[in-house]
Amino acid sequence: MQKFDKAMLKKEIENNARKLFRRELTELNEKEAFHAVAAAIQNQIIDDWILTTKRAEEEDRKRVYYLSMEFLMGRALGNNILNLSAHEEIKEVLEELGLNLSALEDAEPDWALGNGGLGRLAACFLDSLATLGYWACGCGIRYKYGFFKQQIVDGYQKEVADDWLKDGNPFEIRRAELAKEVRFGGWVETVQEADGRLRFIQKGYQSVEAIPYDTPVVGYNNHIVDTLRVWDANAKETFSLDEFDKGNYQKAVESANMAKNIVEVLYPNDNHYAGKELRLRQQYFFISASVQTAVEYYARKHNGDVRNLPEKVAFQLNDTHPTVAVAELMRVLMDDYQLSWDEAWEITVKTCAYTNHTIMAEALEKWPIELFSKLLPRIYQIVEEINRRFCEEVRRKYPDRAEAKIAKMAIIYDGQVKMAHLAIIGGHAVNGVAALHTEILEKQELKDFYEMYPEKFSNKTNGITQRRWLLHANPELAEWVTNKIGDQWITDLPQIEKLAVYAEDKKAQAEFMAIKRHNKERLARYVFEHNGIKLNVDSIFDVMVKRLHEYKRQLMNILHVMYLYNQIKDHPEKDFYPHTFIFGAKAAAGYKTAKLTIKLINNVAEVINNDASIRDKIKVVFVEDYKVSSAEVIIPAADFSEQISTASKEASGTSNMKLMLNGALTIGTMDGANVEIVKEVGAENAFIFGMSSDEVIQLEQNRSYNPMDIFNNDQEIRRVLMQLVNGFYSPEDPELFRPLYNSLLNTKESDVADRYFILKDLRSYIKAQEEAVKQFQNRDWWAKAAILNTSHAGKFSSDRTIEEYVRDIWHLDKITL
Ligand code: GPV
Prior knowledge:
Oligomer: single chain
GO molecular function: glycogen phosphorylase activity; pyridoxal phosphate binding
Protein name: Alpha-1,4 glucan phosphorylase
CATH architecture of the largest domain: 3-Layer(aba) Sandwich
Keywords: Allosteric enzyme, Carbohydrate metabolism, Cytoplasm, Glycosyltransferase, Pyridoxal phosphate, Transferase
Main location: cytoplasm
Family: Belongs to the glycogen phosphorylase family.
Bound molecules: 1-(beta-D-glucopyranosyl)-5-iodopyrimidine-2,4(1H,3H)-dione
Largest sheet: 10 strands, mixed
Helix content: 40-55%
CATH topology of the largest domain: Rossmann fold
């Protein structure tokens, strides 16, 4: 390996300044300097990127295509530099040029091509795949507008378009030569071939051209570079002169717009299905382009014989959003490569695998037959045939109760196409994302499928990449860990266990807590800059960052704050440890209750933060525009990690893992991966409360829960609830929060009152909070427990998760360099 040439890099950055802006580097503003540096970094990456592909091809490696509507990458510059093998030298160069890396990083927009956990998981997986040396391609959509930016105006969320590409993306490469045609609409004609075979030909369709943009995914210190490929859309024949001459100018422009619309914007829903046609268009658009490309690539390498495709290609479906891949692969194999149904089916099942990320009923994708068959006539025909054959199989297997089984399991039923059923039937593997979640899938939600295909099911507990979430986000703690136990943890997180011996070491405790304090100061600066609120870094930083959703129960958190405020007002003489409640969350643009919860948090903040009489004992901060890059500042500063979803509802959670790794203690329910976190760190080093998932499911089934009983019998809770409707937090409009009150108590307004058992769990939540606050003041105990949380986070690396997918589902071999 050639020694890294610092002088060359320096020159290149300076040249980039001239080339891009016709000015000297020293004359550039931060944003311009970012582009000059990023272009040079991309150039550092490019050779490894080309070489990775070459080696993988020479070694004929199997490749996984991670098919996902979302990749929540965050920023690339800092992470790329950190992962590059010459990262020390690169940092020196930047310093010698007088560039401030962290200011450059701040000039890069987040790549917000995702909503929350599901999209961020995809991003962590790509980092792990490259770092572990597997050949992978993330396939998605190049949304012109990513996840909206959130402004808080008068306490309300306001959505602002995220025009993230307006200054260009220095890391992307447009691959016009790899464009693919995707067909929508029309009808299918059946033609009998000379050999008697039937051919199905889509006619009268509209074509859209899919153009891929590749961005590099840099493995940590190993010269491996994988690819994130996102597709842009163009009208196939823009402005055909023909149309123009005939005076059909308008029509030509319209079809261009139809194409452009597909990639216009990311749907801002999380755990919720809206049933919009454009969404199905998006799904088929990127899936068709990705599937065609993968098969063609394989065919070219194997003399056009695609019969052994599953030996070299794996498609992982990130939830049901990419599930049309099953039918599209069937179509390509049969219509473009002339395989029989049976041949194509065997290949499809062996190639595809499906990850389920939720049991929430409202998240299940079910497309009306009408809409589906009109937009994708050939695909619908194939789905019908898959369904017909599946129903036959059910009849054979369950002759005496076939119709009941079919009613529950068919792909097409009640006028709908059920995407989860297609994904399960059309693939060889189905996995949940945490042990509890998988158990619920097997025993309840997907019980019938589990009974029929037990061998398909497995659990793959989620993980996070320690490169971004410790090494990059928390450099001071990362350095401390490395000083104590060496740097192996960066690629082998279970090594971090070695820190446990320092848990009771007074000096180590002091160091650990000093670092936490520095991170709290860093967050305080961020909050002051962005929100204008001054934080007390001696107070408890109690952090809840995640999408705003009723099942996650931000409402329970703020009700507890309201309860505490009443306590302080009633008992000003009592000791009360200063407590800062930090929220970060975006609500889906059309989700009324979620948006009103944001308004409530902000109004509570307004009242409490401005009440001089409580002398700053409580502060409430809603951090505007929570995103990956702000998570990197917030998470390292946390003392408490709020993981308080209704048990059984949070499939896994991943902020729970990020916070644990950074030394926060969990206040949480026995839900999702919290169960495994508690198992790793010990129940004594977390604060667990509330109903178990079995209890929740029981209560849901026997419908015996009446929150009014709590309202009637618990005065303090009743007082908090009354403050929602007596104008205490909204004097200008006392009725403002009535819908939240109703959601908790009123069965007339919603079919079930307190669907997420907030009032049911509130008392035990208050207790868990009290216990945590008490323990926080025992500084030795706390330091020990915090160190133990960090040191027991080893299981939650996405490297471990990826190795499990590789072992059980993808069967990949590593690229050797
Ligand atoms: I379905 N998840 C998400 O972020 N968006 C979705 O649309 C769906 C699921 C999340 C789950 O809610 C989390 O519990 C989980 O940790 C995450 O997916 C990754 O698996």
